[in-house]
Recover the amino acids of this structure.
């Protein structure tokens, strides 16, 4: 039975649909390879998930900074410095130092990106506390009807 036949059979099975709760219907609507937890919409339900990404974001910042420094920094190992060193009369790389301006621009854009990510990382604990407070409010259904 093909994937589309399975989906079609699920759709035309009215008897099952009538007898199912909303949660059962939601859980049965996924293909086997999908993870139901990936679709969690409860406000505080993803705290562990988000804290993992805060750590990953810190790693991203570090990697982006390292790459940016490799492109353009004051040490002698940066690509921009190497371009300038290669730009000599009679060299096959004569004129390559003009590309250093591109490296500088890319490095500046990467620095702006890290600042944006850092802003999210700094705000993450506050946002998580706010979401937890929202979950504790009386009458909160946690995103469920």
């Amino acid at each position: 039975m093909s994937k589309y036949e399975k989906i079609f059979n699920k759709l035309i099975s009215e008897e099952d649909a009538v007898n199912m709760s909303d949660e059962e219907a939601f859980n049965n609507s996924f293909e086997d390879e999908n993870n139901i937890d990936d679709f969690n919409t409860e406000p505080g339900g993803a705290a562990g998930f988000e804290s993992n990404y805060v750590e990953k974001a810190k790693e991203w910042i570090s990697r982006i900074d390292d790459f940016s420094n490799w492109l353009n920094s004051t040490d002698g190992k940066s690509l921009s410095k190497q371009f300038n060193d290669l730009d000599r009369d009679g060299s096959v790389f004569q004129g390559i130092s003009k590309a250093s301006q591109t490296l500088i621009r890319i490095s500046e854009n990467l620095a702006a990106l890290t600042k944006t990510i850092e802003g999210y990382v700094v705000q993450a604990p506050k946002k998580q506390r706010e979401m937890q407070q929202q979950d504790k409010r009386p009458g909160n259904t946690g995103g469920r009807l």
